[in-house]
Amino acid sequence: MARRPKDRPWLMRTYAGHSTAEASNALYRRNLAKGQTGLSVAFDLPTQTGYDPDHVLARGEVGRVGVPVSHLGDMRRLFEGIPLERTNTSMTINATAMWLLALYQVVAEEQGADVSLLQGTTQNDIVKEYLSRGTHVFPPVPSLRLTTDMITYTVHHLPRWNPINICSYHLQEAGATPVQEIAYAMSTAIAVLDAVFASGRVPDARRGEVVARISFFVNAGVRFVEEMCKMRAFSRIWDRVTRERYGIEDGRQRRFRYGVQVNSLGLTEAQPENNVQRIVLEMLAVTLSKDARARAVQLPAWNEALGLPRPWDQQWSLRIQQVLADESDLLEYPDLFEGSHVVEAEVASLVAESLAEMDRIEAMGGAMAAVESGYLKSELVSSHAARRARIESGEERIVGVNCYESTEPSPLTADLDTAVMTVDPANEARVAASLRAWREARDEERATAAVAALVSAAAGTGNLMEATVACARAGVTTGEWSEALRGVFGEFRAPTGVGGAPVAGGAEEGTPLAAVRAKVSRTAAELGSGRLRLLVGKPGLDGHSNGAEQIAVRARDAGFEVVYQGIRLTPEQIVDAALAEDVHCVGLSILSGSHAALVPDVLVRLREAGAGDIPVVVGGIIPGADAAALRAAGVAAVFTPKDFGITRIIGRIVDEIRTANKLDPLDPSDPLEVSA
């Protein structure tokens, strides 16, 4: 039988970057040599949130979850030996997207590239930062201006660049249902396009060019059929919106173009080898259907729930894509689901429900108004709480976590300390020293003048991209660019969504939540304190607040008075709040890997303030050796993703409060008692 011709495969990427620009450059070049067809740059949290590596909030975060890029020199080293004119680069960057694109453009110019040929994507979706990821900087209105300025600039100067990647990926990880994921992403796209066209900077005749360069970045979970139907619904709604709302007649310009990373936070620490089949199933959901196939795919590694993947782990994920594209016959056939009554019914249902939710958001004044009111965040926290309750009850089964928990020893995790990659703690000092050397060597007068021009442009109405490119050329740093705009626009603390979340699980007599409520009430009575008070704190720059929010909601439902001020706090601020609120326990949530630097700082400050008897518990992606070190330093308990039972965690927090206050232990037959 003759072989059929194959379609062109999707772009294959690996989300990567760590430690330094030099180390990340070496990783990119190795990955490209292994057959990767595009780059996906992970920036560290200081870069994403607009801080230089010597800022107090950057402590413990430099080079942890991505590469630090503080100035033009870093960007040069990041792409040394990689011809940008022939490379498709995705940059996961939002609040500081304009700055990183400016650096990228200047490096391409230095390479001699024709910037009109540059291809790639800046994520640049600030709405999902307010709702889920937490790397926002500026309030919604000026943030939308930055996005608008970038889009209009690229239309005229970088016409093949995707200036925004409407990102529903993190919405799913924050608890979004498929309907919410579609509706919130589409409402964000509408807010952006409305602002761009209202700016008057794009002639009506070029509207189609703008729409054609809007891309999306989605999440694919393990519910295979649902995810595949979701992508078909996305495509159908985008075609309708762009045709009816914006009058785009060219079908090619209305095409729904998306890249995907399959679900990372859905990967498990328990029996992590199961993550491989999860990743494969999730990839199939966005590749099997030709009419709704992803344009680019990046896969996480099997051990991301344990820590930073090694190059070999990333290679394994790349090979999964290559086997599907090159060895299977997937790319030889037309759409496999065309005409399926089951698929069509599910897609139609998703379209109808999503359009209804989009109408609700429109009636509120659009996506930005729904962010500022707290509606979108509250809905996400509520749906996430409902999902967690289903997992805890066993209604939603996760293999190796709440069912089929018995397991043989895994050779993949026989030595957990080498099963993930670690970043040298001394790296931060080296990066900060390099930054100081850069500042000393640059033309200070030119840099100062460039920042002044940026401030003047921000205070006016001109396009900020030109002034930003000038700052990049003048040697301005990431922190200086952001600080200049903070001075004009201010900063934004997004709603937490905790207050409006309903009780997620039943609290009837005999339920686990009722038992914990009784423990909380009894302990509070014995202490004579009225109510137990729990401070939930997120030190550093980690914006993944889903876990912290769920702990706060469940502790509230269990009878605690909860103090939760959101993300991005210094250890000093957390300790000050603990003392001011006279809390009985401090709970710290860190997923970025900065726990080794920040948690001991909190402990020391509590002791120095005479409050060392307040128990501190910590949750996050924390390797076993680090957990042991934290307990040795004085942490009462460490919780990692394998501790999926939030009600049990709250019960354990009560136990730690009792121990710290020398109260007698409660009945050990209590089913909520768990080991350390």
UniProtKB/TrEMBL annotation:
Q: Which InterPro entries match?
A: Acid_CoA_mut_C, Cbl-dep_enz_cat, Cobalamin-bd, Cobalamin-bd_sf, MeMalonylCoA_mutase_a/b_cat, MMCoA_mutase_a_cat
User: Where is the chain membrane-spanning?
Assistant: none
The record's keywords, sorted A to Z, are: Cobalamin, Cobalt, Isomerase, Metal-binding
Any idea what this protein is called? Protein meaA
Instruction: Tell me which residues make up the B12-binding domain.
Output: 531-660
This chain's source organism reads Streptomyces liangshanensis
Which cofactors must be present for this protein to function? adenosylcob(III)alamin
Record's superkingdom? Bacteria
Which molecular function terms from Gene Ontology are attached? cobalamin binding; metal ion binding; methylmalonyl-CoA mutase activity
Q: Is Transit peptide there in the keyword field? A: no
- Assembly: Heterodimer of an alpha and a beta chain.
Sequence similarity: Belongs to the methylmalonyl-CoA mutase family.
Q: Which CDD domains match?
A: MM_CoA_mut_B12_BD (cd02071)
- Keyword Metal-binding in the entry? The reply is yes
